[in-house]
Amino acid sequence: MIETAILGAIGIITVAAAVGVVATRSVVYAAVFLLVSLVGVAALFLMMLAEFIALAQVLIYGGAITIVLLFAIMLTRAPEQTNVQDNAQRPLAAMACVGLFALLVAAALATPWRTRDPGADPMAEFTALSELLFSDFLIPFEIASLVLLVALIGAVVLTRSGREGA
């Protein structure tokens, strides 16, 4: 019973932080909300006894990606936009989000989830995961990291090219 309450509280905090990422107008606050959301996801992994994935979540996403985002924000020194106007497509976007959320909830409820056998060896799952990660999915993983690096460098170049002497 207490586990369900803790899981629900962590889920609510994670979802609230994720909403904060898209609802705030400050990029720095959005990065902080993103960090809270990613740490919440890591806590959810811990609740599911997936310690390795929780550690990777905190180190890779919570640490590295958020620090790179904050570094890019500070490097570009873009002025805060105070005169942001509302978009006329906001209600359409909200309806699309609610529809997508309903579709995801329906898919999650219709999925026959598999549970782990309590007597199974947990190291067998790590062995299979590591073999897949370092053999079949090594090249796609590295390509994804290079695409993220190129996107970051492109964002810095685009924001800095308009200023002379910066």
Structure, described:
With 166 residues, the chain is mostly helical. Helices cover 78% and strands 0% of the residues. It has helices at 2-23, 27-47, 51-76, 90-110, 122-136, 138-161. Helix 5 packs across helix 6. The longest helix is centred in the middle third of the chain and has 26 residues, at 51-76. The N and C termini lie far apart (57 Å). The mean pLDDT is 82.
**Largest β sheet strand count, sense and barrel closure:** none
Count of helical regions? 6
Q: Mean pLDDT across all residues, rounded?
A: 82
Low-pLDDT runs? none
Report the structural category.
mainly alpha
Helical coverage, percent range: over 70%
Large-scale geometry: globular
Tell me the Rg in angstroms.
20 Å
Topology as a string of helices (H) and strands (E): HHHHHH
Please report the total strand number as a whole number.
0
Distance between the termini: 57 Å
In terms of DSSP E residues, the strand content is under 5%
Indicate the topology.
Elements: H1 2-23, H2 27-47, H3 51-76, H4 90-110, H5 122-136, H6 138-161
Helix pairs in contact: 1-2, 2-3, 3-6, 5-6
